[in-house]
What does this fold into?
Amino acid sequence: MKAIVTVIGKDQVGIVAKVSQTLMELNINILDVSQTILDGYFTMMLICEVGTANQPFDEVKLRLRATGEESDVKVTIQKQEIFDAMHKL
It folds into this structure.
């Protein structure tokens, strides 16, 4: 099962490392990533394989949210089918 992770916040050192570290600890593989910095704000979107996670999806959400709070950025995750349905034109 795939999921979409989004990260948004003021740019600072270590955001990518912290989010990637959390995903690794959860045994979640990053399949694709896009990131940019717009006027000092960091944005990143990742497509991940969460079927291999060593924790239930709700725990994955909590861990990623906590990782974001540690860095003062917002980290969210949605199952791909929900993300696709919400962003369909």
